[in-house]
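Re: the multi-chain job from yesterday

Posting the exact lines I submitted so nobody has to dig through the queue logs.
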Amino acid sequence: MTVRFILNKKPVAVEVESNRRLLDVLREELRLTGTKEGCGIGECGACTVLLNGKAVNSCLVLIGQVEGAEVTTIEGVAEGHTLHPLQKNFLATGAVQCGFCTPGILLSAYALLTENPHPTDDEIAVAIAGNLCRCTGYKQIMDAIRQTARENESINPRHG
Amino acid sequence: MIPRFRFIRPNSLSEALLALDKNEKTVVLAGGTDVITGMQQGDARFVSAGSVLDIHHLPELRGVNKAESGIRIGAAATFTEIVNSPLLQSDFPLLSQAAVSIGSVQIRNRATIAGNFVNNAACADSVPPLLVYDAVVHICSACEERQMPLADFLLKPNRTALKSNELVTEILLPKLSAGYQGSFWKLGRRRGIAISRITLAVLLKKSGKIIEDFRLASGAVTPIGFRFRELESHAKNHEASDQLWKTLAAELGEAILEKTGLRWSSPYKLPVVQQMLYGLLCELSNGRPS
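And the result, structure tokens for all chains:
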């Protein structure tokens, strides 16, 4: 089957078997290997991408289901060679250790800050509850997201 | 690896129903949190599918709106839509509480309300609240429509009253009269992305000290989501008292044991479920609003 969708702001068309998951097509056909496969059953969040702006597990989406949709992967977050503030802050706070969960967590945080630029700590915790990280203990990840939200605030003040 | 199948993506509900009528061995796909993981893991219910019919995107099946006699929830409304619905938060808060406890943001962004109960898994978290709210399921095929209470729709584990050419299209929650208080309680092994071990939903309406209505449903701890009608009738028209709550809690344990038989987990689960019901009833009768 042919599936057409918008990937990282550019239209793509892929010719694939219908039993492929979005995750398989991203990694194996489109060679975007930033999206990781962890558990393959929707529990670990390593394969998180944005589908029409919402964080989803790409292991739970069949490729046919993204026809006409907008998909953002970790490769679509930076602007050219300029890192996204979340990426900069993940590096600055040491939120990356083995790095396997990082693309997924970063996209969950991206979706959160897009909908809610000034989240509370509880809201951050809920947003990344579907992303397992076995290295960091989450503290540095929370710090990175909090820091990005604070920078948001200085650009875009809450009581502006 | 997922077996091969024909992928059908209809443009409307009527196209979906026609496709379902024409194609045997069709698996209906919405959020995919059961179907795709099932296919991936070789679940016999899904791997023999000749066709997969995707209904997740159909606008007729989405949304939460006011209906004539209550609230209508589209069958493919996601749990994120349900969590965010002010109508449900104000009028059916136990469903909102159950919805927010399901999976993770990623799961709630895909998983749908009807998808939660069409496979009739014991641990479907939306079922106990839907049961105490007397939810009605609206069902369509290419040639007819019918409605039935959710309690009658859920037959036994993995079995419902849905025929192979039918889709659940809506869930209707009849308007609840004023004065109800309620609680939803869930026990999982952890807070996020946990499959429930025990869920309870309770609704209580008192007139002075007298119990006018009492509704109780469980999930996970019974083979399918279940309304304890006998217990409910024991409470109705009685005076609310600590002793009555203790009696009901004890009876709940006995009723569950009768349904499930003695299991390895019974010595742990039964005291927990009894203590929880007692605790919830004490909280509710002390006037904690919900």
